[in-house]
Design brief:
This protein is α/β, with parallel strands linked by helices. It folds into two domains: about 290 residues, Aldehyde Dehydrogenase, Chain A, domain 1 (3-Layer(aba) Sandwich), CATH 3.40.605.10; about 190 residues, 3-Layer(aba) Sandwich (Aldehyde Dehydrogenase, Chain A, domain 2), CATH 3.40.309. Strands 14-17-18-13-12-19-20 form a seven-stranded mixed beta sheet, with helices on both faces. The protein has a five-stranded parallel beta sheet with strand order 9-8-7-10-11, sandwiched between helices. The protein is globular, with a radius of gyration of 23 Å. Bound molecules: NADP nicotinamide-adenine-dinucleotide phosphate and magnesium ion. NADP nicotinamide-adenine-dinucleotide phosphate binds next to helix 8 and helix 9.
Length: about 525
């Protein structure tokens, strides 16, 4: 087998690549406004109640109407998934891995089309949307290989007179509850890792990105994945999501999303329901308040570029986004001025036209982010942005507040939008202390040429993904296994060497000879 390598990103400086995507966007535009049923086993169920998933850059445009699962569907889904588990879990690992390889190839073939759906449904620009699809391909390729390695099990210590083995078996039926911000990559990753291990999965994508979820299920049907292995069950998180989390037959929950929801899921899943015979396993990857530190020795141009890319890529709506720039006093004004200058160059407009900055995901996000700008504006000096307009799309100008105190709300709470707080530190040690002074611990980055500072950051910067002299977003599968500390989650390290095993349990067998 060819060793794993990351899917190359599309070079949109080439006219032929631009043409392919433009054509795909035009074709997808002709398919907008359809209704998507729940997919449970062989049944496609269109519900009376639907959710209209909108184009964030043009909220008059309905991407699709998504059926909304209710308790009765959850019961049917659970029954179907457990039935499918019996045969799916008994297949050789190689067969299940082959489904993932086939899925990767199928996604690769439909790459432009899937990129177009992402652009239109969540407002990613071309590069961001293309990277989302590439990451999904990576997850399939990577987890398939990992599963094949795991299928050998491990060799226990030999004991004369006994034949002993140690192997991994799947857990059962699990949930994949995914966010809207990497709606394809994360959903594909969370689902494929669990199914390749032999589990069956009910997916509950975020409503605001549920058409992408429907496309994922369509791909699974295209590769003839046995019905019932993956159930598509969109609906309201607080209704169907909670119902499924609390269900006595749910064996594990794989969640990626906000801290508030992750903590609630963790709590609900811990309550033993009547008839439940296991402790539910919860994997929860949650929010961040990620910082980039710059010291006086740094390449300041590289630092400024890294801050802008990390803070405003996909409108700051990445769990890894830089929302705090912590800069030492002697170069603070210089870095701030350059970041402002670079940010001013970011053009704002529809993702479909590949503007650098598009709209934020929906009306609720727009309201939340702009309320931070209004209510917390006094916590800093507004040096850029602060303006917003939701008449056509949910547009918020990249916003920078300077001189924010480390304990201000702007410096502590996840805003999840294009809002950056600049924080002044007396020196590197203080900068590091400020960086660590949050409940989160997802990504962080240090720009410095001082080896002592870099070594100190390696030892003390308490984040799951630490980057030195590069931006803090854009983790690559296999290269930068991804997951955070503290309130950023369970540190499951998606795209890392231990991920598939999270959805398995080990069995020891000992035979006396
Ligand atoms: P969210 O609001 O927490 O929603 C995530 C998912 O949970 C959605 O499918 C949502 O359904 C569902 N949900 C909501 N309430 C629920 C409940 N009570 N029980 C069960 N499920 C429930 O997060 P989001 O707004 O989609 O995504 C942004 C957040 O994700 C940010 O905080 C970001 O930092 C985090 N994130 C973390 C990572 C990571 O790897 N650490 C990666 C990406 C994103 P609805 O569609 O109904 O809301
Ligand atoms: Mg949400």
């Amino acid at each position: 087998m060819i060793p794993f390598r990351n899917e190359p990103l599309t070079d949109f400086s080439l006219a032929e690549n631009r043409k392919v995507l433009e054509t795909a966007i035009a074709q997808v535009k002709c398919q907008l406004g359809q209704t998507y049923p729940l997919m449970i086993g062989e049944q496609a169920i269109t519900t009376e109640r639907t959710f209209a998933s909108l184009n964030p850059c043009n909220h008059q445009e309905v991407i699709g109407f998504v059926s909304q699962g209710a308790a009765e569907h959850a019961e049917l889904a659970m029954e179907t998934a457990w039935k499918a588990f019996a045969s799916w879990s008994s297949l050789p690992m190689q067969v299940r891995a082959d489904y993932l390889f086939k899925l990767a190839a199928t996604i690769r073939r439909r790459k432009a089309e899937l990129t177009a759906w992402l652009i239109l449904e969540v407002g990613k620009n071309w590069v961001e949307a293309d990277a989302d699809v590439a990451e999904a391909i990576d997850f399939c390729e990577y987890y398939a290989r990992q599963a094949l390695e795991l299928s050998a099990g491990r060799t226990p210590t030999p004991l004369p007179g006994e034949r002993n083995s140690f192997t991994y078996i799947p857990l059962g039926v699990g949930l994949a509850i995914s966010p809207w911000n990497f709606p394809f990559a994360i959903l594909v990753g969370m689902t494929t890792a669990a199914i390749v291990a032999g589990n069956t999965v009910i997916i509950k994508p975020a409503n605001t990105a549920a058409v992408i979820g429907a496309k994922f299920h369509e791909l699974l049907r295209e590769i003839y994945l046995p019905a019932g292995v993956v159930t598509y069950l969109p609906g309201s998180g607080s209704e169907i999501g909670e119902y499924l989390v609390s269900h006595p037959r749910t064996r594990f929950v794989n969640f990626t999303g906000s801290m508030a929801v992750g903590l609630r899921i963790n709590q609900q899943a811990a309550v033993t329901q009547p008839g439940q015979i296991w402790i539910k396993r919860v994997v929860a990857e949650m929010g961040g308040k990620d910082a980039i530190i710059v010291d006086e020795s740094a390449d300041l141009e590289a630092a400024a570029q890294g801050i802008v890319k990390s803070a405003f890529g996909f409108q700051g709506q990445k769990c890894s986004a830089c929302s705090r720039a912590i800069v030492v006093d002697s170069i603070y004004d210089q870095v701030l001025a350059r970041v402002v200058e670079l940010t001013k160059q970011l053009a704002i407009g529809p993702a479909a036209e590949n503007y650098a900055v598009g709209a934020v995901i929906d009306a609720a996000a727009f309201a939340k982010i702009t309320s931070y700008i209004r209510e917390c504006g006094h916590e800093g000096r507004l040096v850029l942005g602060g303006e917003y307009d939701d008449r056509q799309g949910y547009y918020i100008k990249p916003t920078i507040f300077a001189d924010v105190r480390p304990d201000a709300r702007l410096a502590q709470e996840e805003i999840f939008g294009p809002v950056l707080a600049f924080i002044r530190a007396a020196n590197f040690d203080e900068a590091l202390a400020i960086a660590n002074n949050t409940i989160y611990g997802l990504t962080g980055s240090v720009y410095s040429l001082n080896r002592k500072h870099l070594e100190k950051a390696k030892a003390e910067f308490h984040v799951g993904n630490l980057y030195l002299n590069r931006h803090c977003t854009g983790a690559l599968v296999g290269v930068h296994p991804f997951g955070g500390f503290n309130m950023s989650g369970t540190d499951s390290k998606a795209g890392g060497p231990d991920y598939v095993q999270l959805f398995m349990q080990a069995k020891s067998i000992s035979e006396k000879l």
